[in-house]
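re the bet — no i am not wrong, look at it urself. input seq straight from the record:
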Amino acid sequence: MRGHDLSYISELPALEELGEIEFKPGINIIIGPNGSGKTAILKALGTMFAAKQYGESCLSMDYLMDFVHRKEEGRFDFPFEVLHDGQAVLYADPDRQLGFSHGEVDRECEIGGLQELLSMNKESSGQRSSRRVNPFFNILLGKAEKPQGLGAVFKPEEINETYRKAIGGYVENVFTGKLPKTQMTVLMDEVEKSLSLMNQVILWQKIMKDENVRKNFQIIMVSHSSEAIDIEGANYIELKKGYLEGSRKVKAGELSIEEAIELERNIKKKLTKEEDELLIKLESESSLDGNEEIDNSKEIQHLIDIGYIDVWTKESEDKTMNLLDAMDTNILNVYTLSEKGSQYLNMYKD
């Protein structure tokens, strides 16, 4: 969706309470209940450092156009400041569809988009997750080269004067290091999702405990796995005070099921009336086909960012168009209620 609106990030109660977040060298794990802003923070960082589209920091016309739209709509600045060392950032997300942009095959990555389309129809959810996150596992374990700098999928001379004036020194400012260069940052958004047992073991027993990984990379991750709450030496960023300790007590058998449910109720994330109504609509109708108004609504974007809605792409029922036309106009966004969204409704709806 063009012109991602990140203004709500600064309004997250957790950030208002924390004021600032310090991500330390090695393993950093963002902990909090559903809807507290874990994934939203990660996606905001990925967007800021141009890492969401390709999984690594890479300037593209799509990224620059997104920036220009934000500026035109009065959403020029990111609602936060990030101090970093200027290196490329990696973004591992098992839900990321490589080669898709705004529900269409990305013309800057057409081969990746077509491969994604062909693979998705033949894979299980576990195979799909593994295909999308294994390249990052290989980089962390030293089996693949890590990016050496900021990438770009266009030549500087391809930027027209309008974009050049609008952008000004923004890109240079964002990717100019303000701290000494140390570890490469890897953002990991629930990478354990749907992974096979073997890959789960690789993640939690190999990668998270590998001293070379901690030495060479700064990992900032969001996870709902019980494995994530007892990682020795990890820096925990708790978005809701008491949630980490409560989770550890549940895991250790120190809280009953009833006490655990009550704890979860007490840390409810309040959504707006419009967001509640949208979730209820998705629950009753199973899915919702996108259009320009829906795709660009603030409620949809927020619910996706906090993990309450899943977004997929599909071909429309019009089969008369050829493949090249279909890549541009015949692919629709489809929105469905996620497992987190269902949990929210089951626990909190009136």
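see?? The chain has two domains: 13-269, 270-350. told u. also Residues 125-140 form the longest helix (16 residues). so pay up
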